[in-house]
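Shift notes (night). Ran TRAP transporter large permease protein while the centrifuge was going.
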Amino acid sequence: MSPDLLMLLVFGGAMLLGVPVAFALGLGGAAGIVLGLSPDMLATLGTNTYNSIAKYPLIAIPLFILTGLIFERAGVAASLVRFAQALIGPRHGGLGLVVVLVCLIMGGMSGSGPADAAAVAMVMLPSMTKAGYPKPFSAALIASASSTAILIPPSIALILYSIVVPGVDLRALFAAGLFPGLLAGMSLLLPVWWLAKRNGWEDPSKGERPDLKESFIKALPALFAPVLILGGLRSGLFTPTEAAVVAVTYGLIVGIFVYRQLSLKEVWSLLGEAGVVSGVVMIIISLAGIFAWAGTTLGTFNHLAESMLSLSDQGWVLLILIMVLVLLAGMLLDAISIYLIITPILIPLMQHFGWNPVWFGILMAMNIAIGQFTPPVAINLMVTTQIAGIRLEKTFGWALFFMLTMLSALVLVMVFPGIALWLPERLGYVVGSW
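Came back to this:
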């Protein structure tokens, strides 16, 4: 048995046995090193795990995780919901439209889908249920709308992609994700309005419209957060990593002094929670370094890429197959694991066909976003169904419906790369090509 195949079999077998993905990656890489190289090369394990996380841009990940937790607990979602309701007003599907709008804005603060799903679900589910929306529909809508956080900058997933793929400008990725993220969110609007009107959900005559001026003033600190982060990046005032520090600082100021929802005791608790989540992420990244080093040294990733090229020499055919593969992976794994496992295999294919790495990274992110609310794993859906107090399987029909609508946005970005690349090119960032 070749070392390539054994490495993949050990990794896959460990996953099937329920071993956490981080340790499955480490075991697979170690097996490949022992059989393909030499047992003496196990001495590189410590160096590889350290080198995988000893990268300056990765500092942004725990900081943006903390930012998401702070804004989730600071009462930001409630102020944004009230402002969105004032903008949209009482109408069929109005609360559904509010959900999409608030999730898009929240995505510009945290970069985390599950955090946004929790914050929005806590505020919106009671009012949507009162207005006549079925709980399974509401939970599926919030889960799908919050998945756009992986595209709207600052995105934790795009930060990791910029580390895995050499030479990709993170600022270009952030800018490239904005329009596809908005497009993915807008793809939900028409179906939500149509379904609400058809089923008579949310009687406009019984709704209330908050005062626009008052709700805008209360929401202004929350609305300023994405402007501060993106404006600072565009002006060159700070780097993406420094933007994470600014976001945490601003979130603390808003939560403690403006909305007054956070106490110092709660801040301490949030620091601990962010540390735990960040630790899990960093363990995955560090042990994936063993798998990546072994796969690169043994030539496993090149062999897999050559096998995929043998299926077809047509770029569009392979691109569609890759998108299906990433979508299936998104249904089972988290975004970090997908980028660490699949991207090294796809880099040779990107180089062979000359696919733009920024555009390709956005396509992967859109696919992973869909996977976040598509069964069987569907982490966003797990969050919203738990808050709604319903079983996960009750939402499957609605989740698949929203999956189809967001796939239409993915197809548009595949066919028209300019949707993703126009803004970074306009801002003067290095978009790059192979």
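The chain has a mean pLDDT of 86. Residues 37-427 form one domain.
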